[in-house]
Please model this.
Amino acid sequence: MKECPNCHAEMGADVNFCTNCGTDLRQVAVSEEKPAPAAPEPKAAPVQEAEVKEEGQADSQASGQVKNVLSTYWQWLLHAWKKPAEAVAAEKWYGLTTLILEDLFFILAGLTGINKLASSLTTSYPYFSSIITELKSNISSYVMISVVLGQVVVLAINYFAMKRFAKSEFDFLGYLNRYAHLSAYSLILNVLFWLFALTGSLRLQGILLSMTAVVGFVALIYVLLEEKAEKIDQMQFALVISIIVLIVVMIVVNMFFKEFVSKIESVTNQQISSLLGSSY
Model:
């Protein structure tokens, strides 16, 4: 390769005159061709950046899935409040989740009421504050156990009766879905029950508690009547199960009050013995 000394244009090795300006190139020395610079290799993205990006995408997808699940569950609840008797497809965990939420708000309302009552009694009768505190702790435990145990026993009896006499095709979670859909008003009532427990409105709490019991009982009977009994008349089937459920509820309530009264007697006797012992 030759370089023109006048215009510095590059010419081939066999060119004698510059094709650009006409300069004589016969005396110009031939130089070696410079190799073309290699194209730079693309830089690989740092591994850490790629991992962070993938994690961000995974978190975003998980967040979107959670929102979608919650949105679907909320739509199911809205349908249950608008048309409780209309069956609708649902994930198997919807019913169980709804019943847990109902129990949670019911227990919160009960505990709130117990705490307010205990505070009021402690203010009025400060000498019995230790008795009241211990009773409050025990009653709170009884409330939680009674609510959960009572509901589990009642639903189990109802489900067993449906499988035994009506040959229901529901599995247990499917049965809970149907029952929770019919009794979804209980969730609203229990939330209101808790809110009124915070404000201390006993009359409204009593009304809401009664309404919750009625809704739950009607839902139990409705589920039974939806299934066709094979070995017994449909109405007799519903009546028998209703009586059994009422008996079970009465047993649970009776057990609760017996334990409650027994605990009061025990705590009171201990406190009296302590006071008498300290006076001598």
Remarks:
- The chain has a mean pLDDT of 79.
- The beta strands are 2-3, 10-11.
